[in-house]
Write a structure and sequence with these properties.
Helix content: 25-40%
Number of helices: 13
Distance between the termini: 30 Å
Shape: globular
Largest sheet: 5 strands, parallel
Number of strands: 22
Strand order of the largest sheet: 3-2-1-4-5
């Protein structure tokens, strides 16, 4: 069967790579793809990005299944477009995707359905927002309400930083966010202490299948220093998500979310990503929802997945996820993001890339911000690649990942040298 993956980042490269392993899949198309998928004979690039154009192309090509990677097409209603024309597609509708596309919608939903999250208020008026921050004090979290590719969040450790973020998001709107109600809007939340984890599940509207746990590294620099990014690396499993925490997240966050969306008349299908903060006592709270898999969490998760991804997604689009059981590689998967010069604020494009090693059984370089021009591989985005490996433990995975990363060369390359550091203490690792 023919499969289409919508998107062009590292997440989509990893999804396409895993789908290509399925015996039932005859051809994997990627729209629009990147330099890595262009170089790989297993994939065919599709130039369309508009939902209607993609739908027309999918009809002509008789695509059996489409899976949506990034948030943009979901918010634009690509799932609605495909379903309205009888095409099988995995992802949430435009209405359901508001869980990510509007932080105000998401927070109000969590409050209404008693899903654990940080206290918050929403503002469109900068003066009122500044007054609220002064009353609450720092540290405090400022979030742009809209899609910002994982970069619309400032964890302000001082009042000055909080006030600057409010002006940046409300008055300047330098993130160029497409807001749901016209003008700029921010959500201001209490600061939650603890350890972050990514909890990603498959949903078919009623049933849920949890993927392997993972943890990413948002800060640019070693030791979790520097500005927030879309993610500088990730690993799976995440030791902080113990069996007890896992059960609690399913019981208190994931299932109430799926039931709540159903009660609100917006059944949720697709990947659902709950960004969690887990305190010292093991109590999880929801930092945010994403209506897609995380990037770079997808890369390690796909490396560990032994089940047939096509079969999983087919069940998910049939409403029969309760009939599947996921199988995982017991090893640790770890991914290191290689970023462009100037990332995250002003990434440079057009640098020539060399030294990318061939795929190995335990190591794959997933492309993200790359393009193929006249046979030359060039950087075309902030996060250029994610070097992803499998090894028996975190320490060995680190060693292997950095061995591979050292082979890739482009001017200005930057990457963290401590991906996986939170998993180093001896703690039981569960899936």
């Amino acid at each position: 069967m023919k499969v289409l993956v919508i998107g062009g980042g590292g997440r989509e490269h990893a999804l396409a790579w895993r789908l290509a392993h399925s015996e039932r899949v005859t051809r994997v198309y990627v729209a629009p793809g990147n330099g890595g998928t262009a170089l790989d004979k297993r994939f065919v690039q599709v130039p369309h990005t508009d939902p209607a154009a993609l739908r027309e192309w999918a009809q002509q090509e008789k695509i059996a299944l489409t899976v949506v990677g990034p948030e943009g097409p979901l918010a634009a209603g690509v799932v609605d477009e495909f379903r309205d024309h009888g095409l099988r597609i995995f992802g949430p509708t435009k209405a359901a995707a508001q869980l990510e596309s509007s932080k105000a919608f998401s927070k109000a939903f969590m409050k209404r359905h008693k899903i654990p999250t940080a206290e918050y208020e929403t503002f469109t008026d900068a003066t009122a927002a500044h007054a609220y921050v002064d009353a609450k004090g720092a540290p405090i979290v400022i979030k742009a309400d809209g899609l910002a590719a994982g970069k619309g969040v400032v964890v302000a450790m001082s009042l000055a930083e909080a006030h600057e973020a409010i002006d940046f998001m409300l008055l300047d709107n330098k993130l160029g966010i497409s807001h749901n109600e016209g003008g700029a809007r921010v959500v201001i939340e209490e600061f939650l202490a603890g350890e972050e984890a990514s909890f990603i599940v498959l949903c078919d509207g009623k049933n849920v299948a949890a993927l392997a746990t993972s943890q990413d590294h948002k800060r640019l620099l070693d030791g979790d220093q520097g500005p927030n990014t879309g993610g500088m690396g990730a690993y799976s499993p995440a030791p902080v998500v113990t069996a007890e925490v896992h059960a609690r997240v399913m019981r208190e966050i994931i299932l109430p979310t799926i039931r709540g969306m159903e009660r609100d008349g917006i059944p949720y299908t697709g990947f659902l990503y709950a960004g969690l903060m887990i305190d010292a006592a093991g109590h999880p709270k929801t930092l945010e929802f994403n209506c897609r898999m995380g990037d770079p969490e997808t890369q390690p998760i796909m490396m560990r997945l032994k089940s047939d991804l096509f079969d999983l997604l087919w069940h998910a689009t049939d409403g029969t996820l309760d009939q599947v059981e996921l199988e995982w590689d017991r090893r640790t998967a770890l991914g290191v993001v290689l970023a462009a010069h100037g990332y995250p604020l002003d990434p440079r494009k057009g640098d020539a890339i060399s030294g990318v090693p061939a795929e190995a059984a335990d190591a794959v370089v997933f492309h993200a911000g790359t393009t193929l021009q006249d046979g030359k591989l060039l950087t075309s985005g902030g996060r250029v690649m994610c070097v992803t490996v499998l090894a028996d433990n975190v320490k060995l995975a680190q060693q292997r990942a950095y061995e591979v990363a050292a082979q890739v060369r482009f001017d200005g390359v930057q990457y963290r040298k401590d991906i996986g550091h939170r998993a180093m203490p001896a703690r039981g690792q569960g899936a």
